[in-house]
Design goal:
The protein is mainly α and 211 residues long. Helix content is 53%, strand content 4%. It has a two-stranded parallel ribbon with strand order 1-2. Helix 2 packs across helix 4 and helix 4 packs across helix 8. The longest helix has 17 residues. The chain is globular, with a radius of gyration of 16 Å. The chain starts with a strand and ends with a helix.
Length: 211
């Protein structure tokens, strides 16, 4: 099965520092045994839906690999080798031919999948008393936990997602200055950007030991 892949070319420090760009790096056709070409279509509802399905499947098959990738926080690095390996190992998760893949959206969808599997609701957990340093995503969740839960429950490219993001706009602008205006990237910036801290606080072994 052949995939059309896409990665957002980001400035130094990428989404985590809030310097997200919607520019794409075009790569010529590559042999089938190498990485596929990259194309960006951030507003394609079909691509967003396929990405969620793919991420859910990969999280089921390789949760530890996905957690390692997300905790490293390198999802904004163009052509991340770890993502390429995950995709290659999980081609069985590709439900459609010619699926378009986006590394940043995969990080966001995979983060959300792990939050759902764990039964995490941000409005129901005890947030830290101070915002973790250099964590814009957690800054948003601490400011608007219920609204983040609403975003987590919203289907991509839906009216519910649009409303949830609108309710978070002020917090995103304050915590994630200059984040891309693309709804899909704004969502990924919040969900994947805070994953390392969320894992340590609420999902990982250390969090269980503290409760």
């Amino acid at each position: 099965m052949r995939i059309l892949c896409c990665i957002v070319a980001l400035a130094a420090n990428g989404l985590i520092q809030g310097k997200c760009s919607a520019q794409a790096t075009q790569i010529e056709h590559a042999p089938s045994n190498e990485s596929p070409p990259f194309v960006v279509q951030l507003d394609d509802p079909t691509m967003l839906r396929d990405m969620v399905t793919f991420a859910d499947c990969v999280v089921t098959r390789e949760p530890k690999a996905v957690i390692h990738f997300l905790r490293e926080g390198n999802f904004a690095v163009p052509q991340n080798g770890e993502v390429r390996s995950i995709v290659q190992r999980n081609r069985a998760c590709l439900r459609v031919a010619n699926m378009r893949f986006n590394q940043v959206l995969f990080a966001g969808a995979a983060s959300e999948s792990l939050y759902r599997v764990s039964g995490l609701f941000f409005a129901k957990v005890s947030m830290p008393s101070t915002k973790p340093v250099n964590d814009p995503g957690m800054c948003v969740a601490m400011a608007k936990p219920k609204e983040v839960d609403n975003l987590l429950a919203a289907f991509p490219a839906s009216s519910e997602e649009k409303a949830a993001l609108a309710a978070l706009d002020a917090a995103i602008e304050r915590c994630h200055p200059n984040t891309s205006p693309h709804a899909s990237i704004r969502r990924a910036a919040v969900m994947a950007g805070m994953f390392p801290v969320v894992y340590d606080l609420f999902l990982g072994p250390r969090s269980r030991q503290s409760h």
